[in-house]
Structures
1.
Amino acid sequence: MDLTMSSVFLLLLPIWTALVSAGVDDMWDGLNIKFGKHRPLPKRKEDAEKENYKRQNDICRTDNYHGFLYRLEDDSKLLPIYDLNGYLSGIQAIIPSDMKGYNSFNESIELPPHEIMPPVLVGKSDIQTYTITAYFKHPQLLCSPTYLSNVPTGKGLYIQTGYDPIKHHEQIPLEAKNLSSLWKKALCLTTMGTHYFYNVSRDMQCERLYPVFLMYDSEGQLAAFGWSFQGEPYEGPNSIVSWYQIRPETFYFIFDVNQLPPCMLNPNFRVFGVHIWLQNHNKTNMRCNPPSTPAPQPRTTVTYKEPHSGSGAGPNEDKLGFEQSDKDQIVKNRRSDNIQPPLSNKKSGTNSAVPNSLNKCLFLFVFVLRTILSQFSVQNV
Ligand SMILES: *[C@@H]1O[C@H](CO)[C@@H](O)[C@H](O)[C@H]1NC(C)=O
Ligand SMILES: *[C@@H]1O[C@H](CO)[C@@H](O)[C@H](O)[C@H]1NC(C)=O
Ligand SMILES: *[C@@H]1O[C@H](CO)[C@@H](O)[C@H](O)[C@H]1NC(C)=O
Ligand SMILES: *[C@@H]1O[C@H](CO)[C@@H](O)[C@H](O)[C@H]1NC(C)=O
């Protein structure tokens, strides 16, 4: 009996593999995250296992998500999910729960606020665990071999919005023009794209700061996405991946501050999160504006905490200087349209009458960050 079963299986395997591999080219080309420097998420579960990621579940459909969740040591920020065939198909973050934040009246509240659940979900078996999950293909395709013959594209983005991802998810448009008007356009950041935040406004209640934001490239194609949560999580000395951490003075790192409500300007308000790239970050259409001036004097500091372990980085190197020379110019530029045409081969600066110092600053920041961090590279284990 077993023998027959396994020979049938062995016969089917090549067909199965052929069908599945037809879908590989359809995967997002970028799919990477920043562990100090950009590095790709393992595209296959075998690669993840080689990199010491450990599988967290044995059954494809769990009470909280679908697919096989993998975790690298104690990292709780970027847990890849593989489908039944071992292809990278999603990503989950576990959100720290022992934090306090603020509501729209500047009153202290427990985080994460229930207003953002979903898409933040409380663990069904462990009520202390808060997660948020995105899939790169329709959640129906994660655990269903019956869909094999119709090999799915891996180029999608679906945010899980309930315990059954097949029924409860939000499909993110691949083109910016198809976004609902509730997604508010914010800044363009080189290597990241133009940011969109859900229903942010002057009237937004701070407890409703939506945990998902999107980034589209200069051609309006979905390029990346990120998580944004209120709070200031503790980073253990051994954390491999770091959250970006911003405060009111540094919100312009990702937000258009003119769109933010007063409660977010409460000096104690904190936001943290992480970016996940779907497209290659260094494509031309991921640029906003060419850089052309040398670094001005440092004025403020953005904390983008980075790994301590194995990096040799001293504590002072956590803080990376962010250059800002002309606040007024920055405010002015925030009001301008931030979508820029892709870079041509022409030398920059010859045709741009008004220099966009914000973009330059941000580019410099990202550039400096990448240069510095490339020296802290996390060892591949
Ligand atoms: C996106 O919008 C265009 C019109 O602007 C429409 O033709 C197209 O069907 C939309 N795509 C989706 C997936 O809704
Ligand atoms: C959008 O934000 C406004 C102002 O905070 C709020 O009244 C409205 O209910 C929100 N809409 C949705 C769909 O979240
Ligand atoms: C909350 O704090 C901010 C910044 O300090 C202030 O502008 C705002 O008016 C405060 N909101 C309330 C409701 O007190
Ligand atoms: C973009 O980055 C990838 C790796 O992150 C690298 O292999 C590639 O050569 C880079 N391309 C350019 C044009 O810099």
Note: The pocket of 2-acetamido-2-deoxy-beta-D-glucopyranose (ligand 1) is lined by residues 175, 177-178 (CB under 6 Å).
2.
Amino acid sequence: MGYMHLLSLFFTQIILLLVLLLVAETTAKVPAIIVFGDSSVDAGNNNVISTVLKSNFQPYGRDFEGGHPTGRFCNGRIPPDFISEAFGLKPSIPAYLDPSYSISDFATGVCFASAGTGYDNATSNVLNVIPLWKELEYYKDYQNKLRAYVGNRKANEIFSEALYLMSLGTNDFLENYYTFPTRRSQFTVRQYEDFLVGLARNFITELYHLGGRKISLTGVPPMGCLPLERTTNIMGQHDCLQDYNNVAVEFNGKLERLVSQLKRELPGLRMLFTSTTYDIFYQIIRSPAAYGKLYSSFTKEF
Ligand SMILES: *[C@@H]1O[C@H](CO)[C@@H](O)[C@H](O)[C@H]1NC(C)=O
């Protein structure tokens, strides 16, 4: 839990800073935050689908307002929630599938993310979670509902001025490529990275054609340092798996190039790739003492 909290906290600070820089470039206000991705940004969509991958039980949510689990894979709020608050919007972004919310709530922020998903359909199949293409179908459904709720003109303005957050990719490697033989028999890891980048390109292009203009794409963290990877790295004295981290760096480089290409190809697209999440997160793992207070809370938990 402490680990996830740290992760969220740092992702949040870094993404927030970059996103604020992105938006500072524009004079327009952000009327809504719209979220796609995996457990790093899922606000509770998995609560209502039939998967074992859920977090709607304690101690998840112990620091959330009211102290109850919401389906966020975190002790408290997750990065999009802090970002929303920083833009003067709601302090937390509701999950689209949560029946206790309606279009009036979603008008200023909505989350379509699903823990366990990835760019690849085969990844979401592993734990029967929402595939990325379906997150986009839900977004289309949201567009129709918002048009009916605020009218066409206002809705289109929201779609183009909203900030879109995307955070996924880790599960494609850890839950899928390195766990099951299918993709490994079809692709080398480099080829699989390219396959995923192609899927990311298609998704972002589709989102653009649906009206999205301000997009933040978050790369993958040092995947070889995640708790499960270190726990099972018995031969390596539970250190980070360097191979996985190398793949993460390589994949992030490809995503970053994709973002520059898309910005050249798609007029009016403002897009940002947050690669620094990797570096900062890695530094914290490598020299926790340099981060003072965080060091003590980290060691207390582990
Ligand atoms: C993923 O699945 C959807 C729905 O079956 C399909 O439309 C889409 O083409 C698939 N994507 C890929 C890359 O196979």
Note: The first strand starts at residue 33 and ends at 37.
